[in-house]
Automatic annotation (TrEMBL):
<feature type="domain" description="GFO/IDH/MocA-like oxidoreductase">
    <location>
        <begin position="141"/>
        <end position="280"/>
    </location>
</feature>
<keyword id="KW-0520">NAD</keyword>
<dbReference type="GO" id="GO:0016491">
    <property type="term" value="F:oxidoreductase activity"/>
</dbReference>
<dbReference type="Pfam" id="PF01408">
    <property type="entry name" value="GFO_IDH_MocA"/>
</dbReference>
<dbReference type="Pfam" id="PF22725">
    <property type="entry name" value="GFO_IDH_MocA_C3"/>
</dbReference>
<dbReference type="InterPro" id="IPR050463">
    <property type="entry name" value="Gfo/Idh/MocA_oxidrdct_glycsds"/>
</dbReference>
<dbReference type="InterPro" id="IPR055170">
    <property type="entry name" value="GFO_IDH_MocA-like_dom"/>
</dbReference>
<protein>
    <submittedName>
        <fullName>Oxidoreductase</fullName>
    </submittedName>
</protein>
<feature type="domain" description="Gfo/Idh/MocA-like oxidoreductase N-terminal">
    <location>
        <begin position="13"/>
        <end position="130"/>
    </location>
</feature>
<keyword id="KW-0560">Oxidoreductase</keyword>
<dbReference type="InterPro" id="IPR036291">
    <property type="entry name" value="NAD(P)-bd_dom_sf"/>
</dbReference>
<dbReference type="GO" id="GO:0000166">
    <property type="term" value="F:nucleotide binding"/>
</dbReference>
<dbReference type="InterPro" id="IPR000683">
    <property type="entry name" value="Gfo/Idh/MocA-like_OxRdtase_N"/>
</dbReference>
Length: 375
């Protein structure tokens, strides 16, 4: 295993990005904006895109093969922005090569696969973080501020969703292949919804889940948002809508709904209704507006106050990358950032799929493992 010394003010951070699509380009831009970072390597299959990005960012070394990029052995940080089935092998290789890793969501296709990544981070003594950029939206941060300052009181219930009308990423692509993706909108969009909801509620422990999945439009070739990606030509093998009830320790609850395709009035919408002992919040984001419609509700029963909030847009991936780099700069905290948050989300997604398959509620232990199996 290659072990590198931590970057110091006299030694600039050398960054590499695997994946040259939209997400990877967000990481590249964020690294390029940091004065202490040199973006020195990128890897991706599309030769023309790779060449254009190399010119844009002044990168001398580009690779069609991610293994060759990781194998150079001199990278301090690596971002992984590729299809889900590649998250584990690339992240583990980078960690073992001595790099800190920032991986796109979800952490992996399953909790067990995510566990292998967390184990690799701990063994290497390196950071593994998962890119939950939606919690860095300005409107989500405004709700968190209302929770932190006591305006809402103790959150005890949430209804959270991300719904699309015709948003299957690409019929026949890796997204719709169960082996490559790990699932449909629940693992793709729902993991974001789980993350921001649990984050806003103060990370309560989930004790049980009851979920149902539907696959009504995708198998009939309906609900797609674009052409086939990567020419995989797969049949539609995943759900196109999922809903779940999560029971929380202490009596709280979450209702989650997510879809790639559904007959509904609004094309794309995500948000949360959060209920607390002293107030509440309602956020609706339509068609990916940089700031959604947010209202904070307070009152004592006899009177009520509804306060619209115009939150700033937030900085998404840029903020995530900056926080990651701040953690890299503080070796004393590396052990705190081992991918465990991303792993917990994956365990919950696993439990939801298990519940849907079994047709019953699934109880979870303190590590979010299924109690008594799924039979």
């Amino acid at each position: 295993m290659t072990q590198q010394s931590s970057p110091t003010p006299a030694r600039r951070i050398r960054a590499g990005v695997v994946g040259i699509g939209w997400a990877g380009q967000q990481h590249m831009a964020a690294y390029a904006a940091r004065p202490e970072v040199d973006l020195v390597a990128i890897a991706g299959k599309e030769d023309d895109v790779r060449a254009q990005l190399a010119e844009t960012y002044g990168i001398d070394e580009t690779y069609a093969d991610w293994e060759e990029m990781i194998g150079r052995g001199d990278l301090d940080v690596v971002s992984v922005a590729v299809p889900t089935f590649l998250h584990a092998p690339i992240s583990i290789a980078a960690l073992r090569a001595g790099a800190h890793v920032l991986c796109e969501k979800p952490i992996a296709r399953t909790g067990d696969e995510g566990q292998s990544m967390v184990d690799a981070a701990r063994e290497a003594g390196r950071i593994l973080e998962i890119t939950f950029n939606h919690r860095r939206r300005g409107d989500i941060e405004a709700i968190r501020a209302a929770v932190d300052d006591g305006t809402i009181g103790r959150p005890y219930h949430a209804r959270a969703m991300w719904l699309r009308r015709s948003g299957i990423p690409a019929l026949g692509s890796w997204f719709t292949n169960a082996e490559m993706s790990g699932g449909g909108p629940l693992v793709d969009l729902g993991v974001h919804v789980l993350d921001w909801t649990l984050h806003l509620m103060g990370e309560p422990r989930v004790t049980a889940v009851s979920a149902v999945t539907h696959s009504e439009l995708g198998p009939r070739g309906l609900g797609g948002s674009g052409g086939v990606k990567h020419g995989t030509g797969h049949a539609y093998e995943v759900e196109d809508l999922a809903t779940a009830l999560l029971r929380l320790e202490g009596g709280g609850s979450i209702v989650l709904e997510t879809s790639w395709a559904s007959h509904r009035s609004t094309p794309d919408q995500f948000g949360i209704a959060l209920y607390g002992t002293d107030g509440g919040a309602d956020l609706s984001v339509v068609d990916y507006a940089p700031s959604g419609e947010l209202t904070i509700f307070t009152g004592d029963g006899a009177s009520r106050q509804d306060t619209p909030i115009q939150a700033p847009a937030g900085r998404g991936h840029a903020a995530v990358v900056e926080t990651f780099l701040d953690h890299v700069a503080d070796p004393a905290t590396w052990a705190e950032h081992d991918g465990s948050v991303g792993l917990s989300r994956a365990r919950l997604v696993d439990a939801c799929y298990a519940s849907a398959a079994a047709g019953r509620e699934i109880a979870l232990d303190t590590d979010l493992n299924i109690i008594g199996g799924t039979a």
